[in-house]
Amino acid sequence: MHQPKATKGNTDWFVNDRFGMFIHWGLYALPARHEWVKNREELTDEQYAPFFKYFNPKRFDPDRWAELAQAAGMKYMVITSKHHEGFCLWDSQFTDYKATNTPWGKDLLQEVVRAFRSRGLKIGFYYSLIDWHHPDFTVDMRHSQRNHPDRAALNQGRDMSKYRAYMKNQVRELLTNFGKIDVIWYDFSYPGPDGKGRDDWDSAGLEELSRSLQPEIIINNRLDLPSSADIYTPEQFQPRGWVRVDGQPVVWETCQTFSGSWGYHRDEATWKSPGQLIRMLVNTVATGGNLLMNVGPTALGELDSRAEDALRVYGDWMRQHSESIYGCTASALKAPRDCRLTQNGDRLYAHIFAYPFRHLHIDDIGDRIEYVEFLHDGSEIHFSVDAANSAILQLPVVQPRAEVPVVKLYLKS
Ligand code: GLC
Prior knowledge:
By secondary structure, the protein is of the alpha/beta class. It has helices at 12-17, 37-40, 45-53, 62-72, 109-118, 151-155, 160-174, 198-201, 203-213, 274-286, 305-321, and strands at residues 19-23, 76-82, 122-128, 183-187, 218-219, 244-245, 248-249, 253-257, 290-295, 329-330, 339-344, 347-352, 359-362, 369-374, 383-385, 391-394, 406-411. The chain is elongated and about 80 Å long.
C-alpha cells in the first residue's frame, strides 16, 4: 500500500478522520453572489461598504452548524478567519475591519471554535494571503482594482512589508488566542510578474511562526514554498489516483462545494445529487485522500436548507457506513467492476457504485477471504471461489436502501 511522504505537522489524526467541513463566511454572504464578488465586479471599497454596515447575522447559531457537521460524520472543520475581501471574523487588534465593528458587534470566530470543539471536532483556520481591503496590499493582476484607470497612483505609498507584518500579527493572534489549532490553510499564491508569491508573503516566516506557535499544526500547500506543505489541496476536481508530488505520494485533501460557490450564493443552482455526494467521498478515500466539503452560511448566519439537506445525505449514509471511511485508505487490490475499494488492515470494503444483478466478482482474492457481510446491516453474504481464484459474491437481487451499498470482506491476515 502507499506510504505518503512524512509531514512536519501531525497528520496522524488527519489521515484517519478523512472528512471535514469547510466554512466560507464573510461579508460576501450579503451580496450572495460568490465570495469573489468584489473582484469579479471590480467593486471599490465604497461600493463594498454596505455589506459591512449591514452585517448582522441575527440567526447565527454555531452549535447548529457543529451539530450538523458532526451528524454528517465530519471530524474537523476549517473556517475562513479572513477571506480575500479582508474582513475578519475575530476581534483582531490590528484592524477595524472585523465582526466586532459591525452591527453584530461580537467575535464570531471564538463562538464557532467553541461550538465545534465542544463536539470533539478538530479546528482549522483558513487565512487569506490575498487582501483586497488592506491599504498596503499592492494592486496586482488579481486585485479588485486591477483595471482602475490610475492604478499606478493607487499603488503609491502601498508597502507590502507593512502588509507582511500585519499578516504575522494576525496569524499570531489566530494561533495564540483560540487554543489548539490543528490546521492552517493559507490561500493562495500566484507568483509571477504581476502576481504574488513566497517573497511577497514571507512564506518561510509564516511557516516558522505557525509551527513555533502550534508545533503539531498542519500547513497546506498554497504558500508557494514546497518545503512548507504538509498537505496538498486539489480544488473542485477529483484526482484519479493518489496525489503525487515529484513522483512521491503525499497526504492530500480535496476541497469541494455542494454547489458551485464557496460563499453563500443565492442563485447558484448546480447542487450535487445525493449519489454524487457519497461517491465523491468514497472516491476520495479510495484514492488515499481527505474530503473537505464546504458550506457557505447566509447573511443571517444560517446554513441554506439545500446545504442542510446535503449534510443529511452524508449523515444518513455515514451512520451505517463510516467504518469504510475512517481509518481507511486506498487498497492495493484491484477493484471489481463498478466498485471502489477502501482498506483498513485486513478489512476490505467494496463500495458498489452500480448495483449488479446477483453476482459481484472480485479477482485474485478467493483464497484470502474469510467472511463477507453487508456493512449497513451486518448480514452475511455467501461467496464461492472459482478455479482462477476469483471470489463470486451472491448479492440479493434488490439493492439495499443505501445510496452506495458497501460489502465488507474480512481477509485472512
Ligand atoms: C480559492 C478561491 C477561494 C476559495 C478557495 C477554496 O483559491 O480563491 O475563493 O476560498 O480557493 O479552496
